[in-house]
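Postdoc handover notes: sequence design on the structure in folder B. Input tokens:
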């Protein structure tokens, strides 16, 4: 499916979603996605990220945040739910921490394509209610950010798989391939295809399709999604590497290498896809191969892209990018409907 399929599916999710309202200044929530929790074997992408994620949950719990888990929390294409949720083979501490958010009324769960079993109420009741009594797992939720001195903003939360062929028409085949082909390879090799993003621009067709839907929708929503495993934030490009020396500081071999690298960059510049308005953001994921997790915060009048742990490996968060909520909402409300398709820029 192409961009039209993505747009149609997101529009359907938007229309069907429950809407809530909160004062923009009072919003306090953190959004994580794409944990892909498995059974602690070689095919489990979350295992190395557990320490960072548990540290993050403990911090946000103490700081009074609501927790939005935006889909693909469990890897159910590779596994049955019972071992993923079991005490010995699963992640009981993660469930215990998330359950504390649920008990205090600060927890929202969404289903993705790899845990679309949770789209079925019976399965949720059978497997998840033991940890989260009465839990409702959503496809999408609209959150209206109300402001007394400016136009309100509507944020749509969804996993972001809507309209993709592997999630819809060919989902059954994708599950078979993942479980019986990819998982055995992972278990033996330990290889994961998930690597940390080097920038926060739009670098996949699906990111672009989601951004195009948000930018072109008549209600001017802000879409917050996961699914692509790539963080996306407004006006954020990578900073220069502070450890990279200048040509003058290099020896002859490094000097020549730098020159050739620069010439090749001129011939083949790296490009990112940017939008004129901040209508689409992405959490990144909680299954990076290096043990990092990324997420989005809406709190203290700001939206922030964060990473756990900090640069020195301590269990603290690092703010990778931030903008004020008011600035974002003003930009979305005043966007030019003729300029929502975005453009490529050289990095």
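Designed sequence:
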């Amino acid at each position: 499916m192409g961009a039209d399929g993505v747009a149609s599916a997101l529009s359907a999710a938007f229309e069907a979603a429950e809407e809530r309202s909160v004062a923009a200044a009072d919003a306090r929530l953190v959004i994580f996605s794409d944990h892909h929790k498995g059974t602690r074997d070689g095919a489990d992408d979350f295992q190395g990220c557990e320490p960072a994620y548990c540290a993050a949950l403990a911090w946000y719990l103490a700081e009074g945040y609501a927790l939005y888990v935006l889909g693909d929390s469990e890897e159910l294409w590779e596994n049955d739910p019972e071992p993923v949720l079991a005490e010995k083979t699963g992640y009981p501490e993660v469930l215990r921490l998330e359950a504390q958010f649920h008990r205090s009324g600060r927890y929202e769960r969404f289903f993705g394509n790899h845990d679309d079993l949770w789209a079925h109420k019976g399965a949720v009741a059978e497997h998840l209610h033991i940890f989260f009594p009465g839990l409702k797992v959503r496809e999408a939720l609209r959150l209206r950010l109300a402001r007394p001195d400016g136009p309100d903003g509507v944020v749509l939360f969804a996993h972001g798989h809507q309209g993709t062929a592997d999630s819809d028409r060919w989902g059954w085949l994708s599950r078979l391939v993942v479980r019986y082909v990819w998982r055995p390879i992972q278990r033996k090799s330990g290889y994961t295809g998930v690597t940390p993003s080097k920038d926060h621009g739009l670098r996949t067709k699906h990111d672009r399709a989601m951004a195009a839907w948000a930018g072109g929708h008549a209600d001017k929503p802000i879409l917050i999604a996961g699914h692509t495993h790539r963080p996306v934030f407004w006006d954020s490009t990578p900073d220069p590497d502070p450890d990279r020396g200048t040509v003058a500081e290099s020896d002859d071999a490094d000097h020549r290498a730098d020159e050739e690298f620069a010439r090749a960059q001129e011939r083949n510049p790296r490009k990112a896809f940017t939008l004129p308005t901040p209508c689409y953001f992405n959490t990144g994921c909680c299954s990076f191969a290096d043990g990092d997790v990324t997420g989005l915060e809406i709190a203290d009048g700001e939206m922030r892209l964060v990473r756990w742990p900090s640069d020195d490996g301590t269990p603290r968060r690092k703010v990778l990018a931030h903008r004020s909520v008011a600035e974002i909402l003003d930009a979305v409300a005043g966007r030019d409907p003729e300029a929502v398709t975005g453009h490529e820029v050289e990095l």
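Context for whoever picks this up: The domain at 3-238+275-346 is CATH 3.60.21 (Purple Acid Phosphatase; chain A, domain 2). Don't rerun without checking with the PI first.
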